[in-house]
Amino acid sequence: MLPRRTVLAGSLTLAAGALLPACKPVMSGMLTGADAHPATYPTVRAVEFMGRYLAERTNGRLGIKVYAGGQLGNETDTLEITSFGGIDLNRVNFAPLNSIEPMTLPFSLPFIFDSVSHMRRVVDSEVGNEVLASLEQHKLIGLCIYDSGARSFYNVRRAITQPSDMEGLKIRVPASDLYIAMVNALGANAVPIPFGEIYQSLAQGVIDGAENNWPTFVGERHYEVAGYLSLTQHLLTPEALVMSKVSWDRLSAEDQALLREAAKASVIEMRRLWDIRVDEAKAAVAASDVKVNEVDTQPFADLMRPVWDQFITSPAQQSVVERVLEMKEG
User: Fold this and answer.
1) Which of 19, 44, 52, 56 is most buried, with most CB under 10 Å away?
2) What is the pLDDT of residues 280-297, one digit of tens each?
3) Beta strand 239-244 pairing with 89-93
4) What is the pTM of this model?
């Protein structure tokens, strides 16, 4: 009898395969890409940009077809499918990566980044390259790191100005032990729920709130049901674009180099689109009935030391943390 994990992985690959074209050698054809975000989201458009970049430089021999909006499954599922070669490229948040590779955890720590510019500086450095390289042992090639913005709490009940305001709130989190520990440390009750179920869960009272960035708050229409947005900016967790090592190994050395070049160019495009989207989202919220409040984040950050200690358990992880902190502004 096959192990349950193997059976599950095979089932997921077959399910995704129903949506994908017949398998072709990667050396000539359309690469498949997965993204849980909607088709207009900056990460989706950045990978599409990457596909055009490849097509232009190979006379159409290579390109990328992105299946957005979670068509191929949630991030945890598509990550496993990617590792088996059922999907070529996959844009994922660091949360599911935290579950398989400890070296990704430092970038997910609450309050480790003090600004978007700090986060971008870190992920563009050798530290970012080392974290991406750590994924190869999991049959994933880390191509680049995208923004995921500053995440803040929003809810249906009250403004959050201090940690005590979190007490008793049911807050949706991704399926990540670190996110669960963070929310519970603030006195709230962490509720892991799939991304696509947040709106309905807020509307039906299954949860009181969630946490995410400006574009998601607006783009997923969460601001229609959550009337309070408190700018805790507790996480600036980036996102990764990974490629199946199975697919990668089918590429020539020249095409591998071109793919890395295209990924690097897509980061610039993604950030341009992201900054525009953030400004648009802020304008949409300002025109709505949502109550937005600034927050003194230090009392929240002070409660995170046990969370850091829980997840940073090796000298290698600690080294990444120290290098990230050294790159803070000022």
Assistant:
1) 44
2) 999 999 999 999 999 999
3) antiparallel
4) 0.86
